[in-house]
Design brief:
Blueprint: H1 2-21, E1 25-30, E2 33-38, H2 44-56, E3 81-82, H3 85-90, E4 98-102, E5 105-110, E6 115-120
Antiparallel strand pairs: 1-2, 3-4, 4-5, 5-6
Length: about 120
Amino acid sequence: MKSYFGCATAILILAGATAAGAQTTIIERDSPGVITRERVELTPAQRTTIYRTVTRERVSTAPPSFAVRPGVRVPQTVELQEIPSTVVQEVPSVRRYRYMVVNNEVVLVDPATSEVIEIIRQ
């Protein structure tokens, strides 16, 4: 009986380790603390949905002089918008992000770190 219990415990531990290894979270050291950045994997159809929905909303845009690249921190003066609920229904992986529009590009930003996560072009 004890050997069955031991085997079951080992299987559960291995299964937990495998599930943890399958996550796509990247942790990078940055002073003064730790920044957690997730990868966003979007299909071309999801990118199109996000771009078309957001650009129809006619939100204010960020200054065109702002150099946008993944990993860059957005200035605190830039107003970030919530992802529209219609987009979240179709692309739930972007729920936690905010966005801004710069030079006709939709820029996804992690509000916790103010980092640019993804740039979606037409």
